[in-house]
Amino acid sequence: MVSLRSLRLSLRFIIPLALALVLLAYTVMPLVGKLTLRWFEKDLDIRSRLIASTFHDPLADLVKQGDRAKINALFMRAIKDERLFALGFCDGKGNLLYKTPTFPESVRCTAGTGHSESGSILKLAQGPLYVSTSQIEMTGEALGTLILVHDMSFVERRSSDTQKYVIALFAVLGVVVSLITVLVAHLCWRGWVEGVRSMLRGEGIFRPFSQPAASSELQPLVGDLRTLLRNIDAERRFADDATISWTPDTLRRLLHKELTGERIIVVSNREPYIHTKEHGRVEIHRPASGLVTAVEPVMRACSGTWIAHGSGSADRETVDRHDRVPVPPSHPDYTLRRIWLTKEEETGYYYGFANEGLWPLCHIAHVRPIFRLSDWQQYKAINKRFADAIVKEADSDDPVVLVQDYHFALLPRMIRSVLPKATVITFWHIPWPNPESFGICPWREELLQGMLGSTILGFHTPFHCKNFLETVDRYLETRIEHESSTISHGGNLTLVESYPISIQWPYPWQDTIPTVDECRNEILTSLGLSPTHLIGLGVDRQDYTKGILERFLAVERMLELHPEMVGRFSFVQIAAPTRSALDDYQAFEAQVRNLATRINQRFSTGSYQPIILKAEHHEPELVNRYYRAADVCMVTSLHDGMNLVAKEYVAARDDEKGVLVLSQFTGAAHELHEALLVNPYYIEQTADALFQALSMPAFEQQERMRSMRALVRDFNVYRWAGRMLLDAARIRQREKLALRIGRHQ
Ligand code: G6P
């Protein structure tokens, strides 16, 4: 269908064409007429000379003889030629001696030359006439002048015919050229529109391999525009970072303003509130999960729906008929939608593929990943079940969905296939390995393709992003733009960006929790320790990635090196049971227990124990009291995406005391530079750091803690979510603009 734009475009060519033709008719054509007239005059001159030379000898003879009858007959024969109108003959004295009856009266003889106006045009009633002369002589004696009068009306006829043909030719040519121009312009326009649309989507001029490239003439322009857009984005980000102070309110406003009040949908395997049946009563637990710690406050700020596996023994009896329950239980802010799994499904998808396959695959902890086909099939099926639930929960065709972690690598693509306009923000809470390591997975391509259904794919650190880009580059046919950190695949564009996760600030118990001294007294008393006893603290799930064994060995080594600490220092390890159905985890729990027992046996005196192992679940508020009581907190993960325990410890210490010993292999080490950074594999170094922490002067503790607290305050979890949502909002705006541009084509 010819659109209005095409019509307007066509008129832009047709109007100038019409003007050009008018100009042609009024200015150029008279010139063409004059030119053709001059050509015909020349022709007539040549013709005159030809006729004159043919007549010369017989005419000269007849004039000499004075034979009027024969001359007249000769003349009459000659003017049978339709273009020769009349003939006359003048003697040297200017007398017109012979003439045809058609000879015009206005043509007169003059003495000497025969005719005064030779080579001139006469405009008479019968039409224009052209007069030419030729001298007639015999053996050097001048006899007179032959006057030839040519009919020029044919010249006018031809000239006007020529003008008509020329105008018609120009008109046809003009129309053809205009049509071709309009066609080319139209094609160019479409190319430009395509180019601008893909640029707005962040694709530049590049399309996925399956689609044709946009016009190449656009390349330099698109390059410049994209740089401009990137700079604008960077400036906006910088301005946002510098000016926005991130709170739940900021996040809410952002959602309202930039994402037009969209409710968000969060998907994770672990649910934020677990209902369990204990002694006949329903209890509510908050799970030990960095993911939940971070995302829950975001959900409370934004509201919406959180879809997760209902894993608690009383979960089913606390939901409504749509499997929904409002949370937090005390003052609901959002909806928890539970998904049910059979034991078999949980074994394959969660324990098997996610935690025996992907978890060790992504962590450098020297535990071999196990990949079973049956686990993979369950993983696919459960991802599909969650995708269906998302589609049901979405109240528009372009929802904002936050997909959490390695349990759902296939989900982004599944969502996009049903809701192509959805904004899918996927966050990978654990490290991303290098391409060789990832290549171990038999279904690596499917996993990567699944993740590339995301609009934004977030990792904690730029290093994990780099690993991911390299992995995609190695195993998939995609277009990667390193400058903008985007991947084009199957018509979809994914921004791969680092968003270091964080915690709620101010932390939730700020106004109600007892003072540091009170917490310290309470904890020390509960442990049966004296008020001056030094406390080290570790808070982890009992996971082999957390470096708990290395930490205990460092405690042992410190006690060896500094015997004065024996009896004065204890290390409290809060170790939440986790994934206990798996052999590796059971073996690890046993190793932790045995090592603690061995060290305790070695250094115990009376009731003193250097290692106090609390291998049970602790609610977050109690953990917070431990943080406030501890002189040092040890985070010695062998490999960790972020490790929020480090940030929680810092947030809990509003007295600006306490020291953080932090593994260099955590994401947190990229931000908390004032911690004592250690390589947990290097036991001597960690032992030294522990001793340094225990003997650190108060002012140094304060300086370090103050600086780390400022960082955690400014880079809190609202900023983490806010930056992702802002980026998503920009992408959404561009998508919408791109669609609008396309619609008016
Ligand atoms: C890590 C993962 C989370 C997970 C948490 C607890 O932090 O990134 O996705 O929730 O461990 O593990 P669990 O298996 O108990 O959920």
Structure description:
By secondary structure, this protein is of the alpha/beta class. The strands form five sheets. It has a ten-stranded mixed sheet with strand order 12-13-11-8-14-15-16-19-18-17, with helices on both faces. A six-stranded parallel sheet has the order 22-21-20-23-24-25, sandwiched between helices. Helix 3 packs parallel to helix 4. The longest helix has 62 residues. The protein is rod-shaped.
Topology diagram in text:
Elements: H1 4-65, H2 68-78, E1 84-90, E2 96-99, E3 109-110, E4 114-115, E5 120-124, E6 127-138, E7 141-151, H3 153-200, H4 219-243, H5 248-258, E8 264-267, E9 274-278, E10 281-285, H6 290-302, E11 304-309, E12 324-327, E13 334-339, H7 343-362, H8 373-393, E14 400-404, H9 411-418, E15 423-427, H10 435-438, H11 444-451, E16 456-459, H12 462-475, E17 479-481, E18 486-489, E19 492-498, H13 516-527, E20 534-541, H14 548-561, E21 569-576, H15 583-603, E22 611-614, H16 620-629, E23 632-635, H17 644-652, E24 659-663, E25 676-678, H18 683-694, H19 698-714, H20 717-743
Parallel strand pairs: 8-11, 8-14, 11-13, 14-15, 15-16, 16-19, 20-21, 20-23, 21-22, 23-24, 24-25
Antiparallel strand pairs: 1-2, 1-7, 3-4, 5-6, 6-7, 9-10, 12-13, 17-18, 18-19
Helix pairs in contact: 1-3, 3-4, 3-20, 5-6, 5-20, 7-8, 8-9, 13-16, 14-15, 14-18
Transmembrane segments: 13-32, 165-192
Organism: Geomobilimonas luticola
Keywords: Membrane, Transmembrane, Transmembrane helix
